[in-house]
C-alpha cells in the first residue's frame, strides 16, 4: 500500500494577510515582492471560512459524483464532459459552476444550500472540488472522478489564469509565482488550507483502483479525448446513454465549441460575487485581460518556459512527496503506471507523440 506524506497536526493557522476578515483559504508563505504580497492578500479573501466550511460539510447523496482535481488540471473540461453526458447535451445553463457547484466556493457565489441543490433535475448530481482526499466529503454510494496533470503545465496555466485577475500581466514573473505560491503550498494543517498539487495527487493515489473512483489524466483527456469520454460515460452510467450522446459530449467539450460560449465557462458568477471583497475592481478577470479557463496552449510547454532553478524545485517537490507515496520517479511514469494498472489500451501509445501530431489548434488547454 502506498505511504502518504506525513500530515501535520490539525491546528489553527492565522494569516497576517487575512486577520481583518474571516477569509480563506490561508496563504501564509513569505513574499519577496509587494505585487506577490498583494496577490496573496487578495486571494485570501476569495472564500470565507463560513462558505468553505459549508461546502466541505456537504452530506452527499447516494449516486452523487464529485469531480476532484487540483487547480488547473482540467476541471472545466471534465465538467463539460460530465454535464453533457448527464443532461443529454443541454447547454441552457448560465455558467457551468451553477449546475456543477464548486464545494469551496459555492456558498460565497450565492449557492447556499448544496445539500438540496437540484441542478435543474439532472442526474447524477455533480459537484467539483480542489480539495485533497482527506477533506473531500464522503458518503455511501458517492463516486469520484479524479484528474491529475503534469505540475509544470498546471503551474503555468495557473499563472496565466490569475494574471489579469489577481495581478496585472507581467507584474509577477512566472518563476516568482511558482516558487512563492504554487510550490509554497504543502500538506494542509486544516481544511481551511489548500493542499499543494503534489499532496493532492498523492492523497488520492491509494484509492485509484476503488470501484467508486475513476482516476484520469489531463494529457489523456486531450490526446485521447473520445476514449476518455467513453471511460467517463461508462463510470457515470447516465440514463439514455448511446453512441450519439457520447459524440455530443465529445463535441461539446472541444475547445472550438466551448469558445463559442465563453461566459458559460468564465467564473463570472464567482468573480462578480467576490471581486470587491478581494479588494479588486468589480470587473477584474472579466475585462479580457485574464486568460480565462478555456484557452489554447501546449502540453509540455511548462518545462520550456521556466528557469532551471524552478525546474529543480519542481523535481525536488516530486521527490519529497510523490516518489515516497507512489514509487514513481516522474509524472510520466506515474501516468503510464496508473493507466497500465487500469488496462487502458490508449496508454500503449505515447501521449507526447500523439500530441505532437495534433495541429496547434487541437492542442487544447481547457482548465
Structure description:
It is a single chain. By secondary structure, this protein is of the alpha/beta class. The chain has helices spanning 34-43, 49-56, 75-87, 96-99, 106-109, 151-162, 174-182, 197-204, 218-223, 225-236, 243-252, 255-258, 268-274, 302-305, 308-326, 331-341, 351-356, and strands at 23-24, 47-48, 65-68, 126-129, 143-148, 213-217, 294-296, 364-366. It has a 4-stranded parallel beta sheet with strand order 4-3-5-6. α3 crosses α10 (225-236). Mean pLDDT is 87; it is low at 1-24 and 355-365.
What would a concise description of this structure say?
With 367 residues, the protein is an alpha/beta fold.
Keywords summarizing the entry:
two-stranded antiparallel sheet, alpha/beta, 367 residues, disordered N terminus
- Rough shape? globular
Query: Strand sequence of the main sheet, in spatial order?
Result: 4-3-5-6
Compute the separation of the termini in Å: 31 Å
Q: Gyration radius, to the nearest Å?
A: 19 Å
What is the string of helix and strand elements? EHEHEHHHEEHHHEHHHHHEHHHHE
Amino acid at each position: 500500500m502506498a505511504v502518504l506524506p506525513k500530515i501535520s497536526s490539525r491546528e489553527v493557522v492565522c494569516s497576517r494577510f487575512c486577520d481583518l476578515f474571516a477569509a480563506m483559504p490561508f496563504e501564509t508563505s513569505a513574499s519577496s515582492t509587494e505585487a506577490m504580497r498583494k496577490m496573496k492578500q487578495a486571494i485570501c479573501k476569495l472564500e470565507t471560512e463560513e462558505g468553505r466550511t459549508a461546502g466541505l460539510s456537504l452530506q452527499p447523496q447516494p449516486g452523487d459524483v464529485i469531480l476532484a482535481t487540483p487547480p488547473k488540471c482540467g476541471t472545466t473540461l471534465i465538467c463539460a464532459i460530465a454535464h453533457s453526458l448527464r443532461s443529454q447535451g443541454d447547454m441552457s445553463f448560465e455558467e457551468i459552476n451553477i449546475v456543477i457547484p464548486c464545494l469551496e466556493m459555492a456558498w460565497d457565489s450565492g449557492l447556499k444550500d448544496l445539500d438540496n441543490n437540484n441542478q435543474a433535475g439532472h442526474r447524477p448530481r455533480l459537484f467539483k472540488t480542489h480539495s485533497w482526499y482527506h477533506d473531500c466529503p464522503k458518503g455511501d454510494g458517492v463516486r469520484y472522478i479524479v484528474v491529475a496533470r503534469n505540475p509544470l503545465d498546471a503551474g503555468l496555466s495557473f499563472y496565466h489564469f490569475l494574471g489579469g485577475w489577481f495581478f496585472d500581466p507581467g507584474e509577477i514573473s512566472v518563476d516568482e509565482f511558482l516558487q512563492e505560491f504554487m510550490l509554497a503550498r504543502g500538506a494542509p494543517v486544516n481544511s481551511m488550507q489548500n493542499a499543494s498539487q503534489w499532496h493532492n495527487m498523492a492523497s488520492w493515489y491509494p484509492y485509484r483502483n476503488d470501484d467508486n473512483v475513476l482516476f484520469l489524466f489531463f494529457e489523456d483527456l486531450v490526446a485521447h479525448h473520445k476514449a476518455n469520454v467513453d471511460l467517463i460515460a461508462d463510470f457515470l452510467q447516465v440514463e439514455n446513454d448511446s453512441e450519439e450522446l457520447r459524440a455530443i459530449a465529445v463535441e461539446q467539450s472541444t475547445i472550438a465549441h466551448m469558445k463559442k460560449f465563453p461566459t458559460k465557462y468564465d467564473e463570472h458568477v464567482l468573480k462578480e460575487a467576490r471581486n470587491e471583497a478581494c479588494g479588486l475592481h468589480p470587473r477584474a478577470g472579466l475585462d479580457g485581460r485574464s486568460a480565462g479557463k478555456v484557452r489554447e496552449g501546449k502540453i509540455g510547454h511548462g518545462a520550456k518556459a521556466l528557469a532551471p532553478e524552478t525546474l529543480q524545485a519542481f523535481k525536488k517537490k516530486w521527490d519529497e512527496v510523490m516518489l515516497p507515496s507512489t514509487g514513481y520517479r516522474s509524472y510520466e511514469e506515474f501516468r503510464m503506471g496508473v493507466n497500465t494498472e487500469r488496462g487502458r489500451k490508449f496508454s500503449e501509445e505515447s501521449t507526447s507523440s500523439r500530441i505532437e501530431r495534433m495541429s496547434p489548434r487541437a492542442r487544447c488547454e481547457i482548465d
